[in-house]
Amino acid sequence: MAEKVKLAFIGCGGITRSHLEQGLKNFEDVQFVGWCDVNEKAAAARREQVGGRGEVYTDARRMLDETKPDAVYIMLPPFAHGPAEGLVIERRIPFFVEKPVARDLDTALRVAEGVERHNLITSVGYMNRYRRSVRRVKELLEGRKPVIMHGGWVGGGPAKYEGIWRWWVQKDKSGGQFLEQTTHTIDLARHFFGEVEEVYAVPVRDRIPRPDFFTIEDASMVQMSFVNGAAANLYSSCCTSVGGGIFLTLWATDMKAEFTGWEHSVRIYLPGDEQITIPGEPNIFALEDRAFIDSVKAGEDRGILATYEDGLKAVAIACAADESMRTGKAVEVKV
């Protein structure tokens, strides 16, 4: 491969802006060649963010054929996934995809099959796996038996239904908070405790007045049973404006870890009153982007910590939870 990786983007909203701002725009081994979005102004804004490098498109197929990128970032809302991945897979291009990787399990399964068929390099935006705090807890769990875990994303929800928040509150578009936002905690639960075999979920609705287009749950609680016998309870809420936050606490037989905040700072408790405190990194996107670009350049994995398979399994857990909310029954995770 050439010295620089030719990079194109499908989806040019706020999450793309954050990746660029946190370091990607300054990678000297990246050549920005294309920016595609249904909103041409958004694509133009991202082009401007990197000093005018690359061309602006509203048609992804045309962009891929004209710019011939070495790798693609797919940065779309849940309901828009599938067609873009199909175009990239057809051309056998490595891709980074923002979480969640799909709104429904069938879409994620189709994409996963294409990725496996062509043995493509992929990365999914579960950036917390790259944090020093998460890596240290993962190391300490080796050789210990996991026991229980609880955590989630608890807050008051959007103040205005504008921009992404317009589709975020519509169930058929976002899939609900557990799929779209708490997916980060779903992924960490798998990362720490292993595969999930069954979920039981309880929805909470009608807590506060909502507009007619607000169709997601106000909150939910999802109990997860792991193959190894451990258990977890994950919370999601967008109707509790006081005392919320992002958090995750887990216990192994002789260890406890408490993660707090978006940055996932951690305090670890070990035998003999030993405590370890690790602050979270502010610019975490740069770490996962670096691993993806390095892997594309090498033609093999060079530090990617979350692949499309991980994204698929997180969607499978969330879809099982959604089925449980509808039926009131425990549901087996099918992937």
Task: Give the total of beta strands.
Answer: 15
Count of the separate structural domains: 2
Helix fraction by DSSP (H/I, runs of at least 4): 25-40%
- Low-pLDDT stretches are none
Largest sheet: 9 strands, mixed
Per CATH, the superfamily of the largest domain is Dihydrodipicolinate Reductase, domain 2
Strands of the biggest beta sheet: in what spatial order? 14-13-12-11-7-10-9-8-15
Structural class: alpha/beta
Shape: globular
Rg for CA atoms: 20 Å
Please describe what this structure looks like.
It contains twelve helices and 15 strands. A nine-stranded mixed β-sheet has the order 14-13-12-11-7-10-9-8-15. A six-stranded parallel β-sheet has the order 3-2-1-4-5-6, sandwiched between helices. A hairpin with a 4-residue loop joins strand 12 and strand 13 (265-270). The longest helix is centred in the last third of the chain and has 20 residues, at 308-327. The chain has helices spanning 14-21, 40-49, 60-67, 83-90, 105-118, 132-141, 164-168, 171-174, 177-180, 183-193, 285-298, 308-327; strands spanning 5-10, 30-36, 55-57, 71-74, 95-97, 122-124, 146-154, 196-204, 219-226, 231-237, 245-252, 255-260, 265-270, 274-278, 331-332. The protein is an alpha/beta fold and 335 residues long. The mean pLDDT is 97.
